[in-house]
Design goal:
The structure is a single chain. The protein is mainly α. The chain has a single domain, classed as Four Helix Bundle (Hemerythrin (Met), subunit A) (Up-down Bundle), CATH 1.20.120.80. The protein is 79% helix and 0% strand. The chain contains five helices and no strands. The longest helix is centred in the N-terminal third of the chain and has 37 residues. It starts with a helix and ends with a helix.
C-alpha cells in the first residue's frame, strides 16, 4: 500500500465516522422534535412568536456555512491568505451565532417565558432544551474550527492535504442545516 492509498483510506474512514456521529445527532433531534409534537396536545401548551434574534442567528449561521465553503475552496488552490480570512470570518460568525442565541433567550425572558420555575411552560422548556442541545453540538464545531485554524497556521493544509478542513466543513454545514431545520420547525409548528 502506498502512502497516497493509506491517506485516502484514512480519509474515507474519518468521513464515515463523522457521518455516523452526525446520524446519531439527527436521532437526538428527531426525538426532541417528536416529543415537541406529542406535547403540543397538552392543555398547558402556549404558543409564542420566535424571538427576532433567532431569525438573525439563522442568517448568520447560513453565511458562516458559505465562508467555510470558501475556505475549503481557497486551500484547494493553495491560497493560504484567503483560507485564513475565510476561516477567521467563519469563527467570528459562529461566535456571533452563539451570542444571538443567548440574545434570543433574553428576549424570551423579557416576555416572561422562562425555561424553569413556577412561571415556566412546557413550550418554553422544550424550546430551551432544543436550542441548548444544538449549542452544545455547535461548541464542538467551534472547537473544530479553532483546531483547523491552528493547524492551518502550522501549515498542515495545502491543495493535496485538505482532510481536516473537509471534515470541519462537513460538520459545520451539518450543524447549520440542523439549526435551519430546528428554526423552521419551531417557527412553523405552533
Amino acid at each position: 500500500m502506498t502512502v497516497e492509498e493509506y491517506k485516502e483510506r484514512e480519509g474515507r474512514s474519518k468521513k464515515l465516522l463523522l457521518w455516523f456521529a452526525m446520524i446519531s445527532f439527527v436521532m437526538v433531534f428527531a426525538g426532541l422534535t417528536s416529543a415537541y409534537v406529542v406535547s403540543k396536545s397538552r392543555a398547558d401548551w402556549k404558543n409564542f412568536d420566535m424571538p427576532s434574534a433567532f431569525l438573525i442567528s439563522t442568517v448568520v449561521i447560513l453565511i458562516s456555512s458559505i465562508t467555510f465553503h470558501l475556505a475549503k475552496k481557497a486551500i484547494q488552490v493553495n491560497n493560504r491568505a484567503q483560507t485564513t480570512t475565510y476561516l477567521l470570518i467563519t469563527l467570528v460568525l459562529g461566535l456571533a451565532f452563539v451570542y444571538l442565541q443567548f440574545e434570543g433567550f433574553s428576549q424570551l425572558i423579557n416576555l416572561g417565558l422562562y425555561p424553569t420555575g413556577p412561571t415556566s411552560t412546557v413550550t418554553t422548556s422544550f424550546l430551551y432544551v432544543v436550542v441548548v442541545t444544538h449549542l452544545l453540538h455547535l461548541l464542538g464545531g467551534l472547537i473544530s474550527i479553532l483546531i483547523i485554524i491552528y493547524n492551518h497556521f502550522k501549515q498542515k493544509y495545502n491543495s493535496s492535504q485538505t482532510l481536516g478542513i473537509e471534515l470541519g466543513a462537513m460538520f459545520w454545514h451539518f450543524l447549520d442545516f440542523l439549526w435551519l431545520y430546528l428554526f423552521l420547525f419551531l417557527y412553523f409548528f405552533k
